[in-house]
Amino acid sequence: xxxxxxxxxxxxxxxxxxxxxxxxxxxxxxxxxxxxxxxxxxxxxxxxxxxxxxxxxxxxxxxxxxxxxxxxxxxxxxxxxxxxxxxxxxxxxxxxxxxxxxxxxxxxxxxxxxxxxxx
Length: 119
Description:
0% of the residues lie in helices and 54% in strands. The chain contains no helices and 11 strands. The N and C termini lie far apart (40 Å). The model has no long low-confidence stretch (mean pLDDT 97).
């Protein structure tokens, strides 16, 4: 059974920082592209950042220069360091694992962690 467990969310003031963690179990972590998505109230879920199996990264324009995604294959964990947080970063943040086989795509989601940026 695959489980993606997010942690590290919370309430932070504008300009503050948080680090989200996603610990994966039940899958071969190193072969999965890992990503962070977020969904704000009344909005669609959007990609925040992704890191490939080779640790290539890609970010949404809205977070470039402020957020950093990283992975530790030995710990089966992906991180999202968020700096200079803004109120518009408020959302539920979801961890995603995705791998493509010969004819199938394997994709899993975590349960989400709330990030609230407010004074």
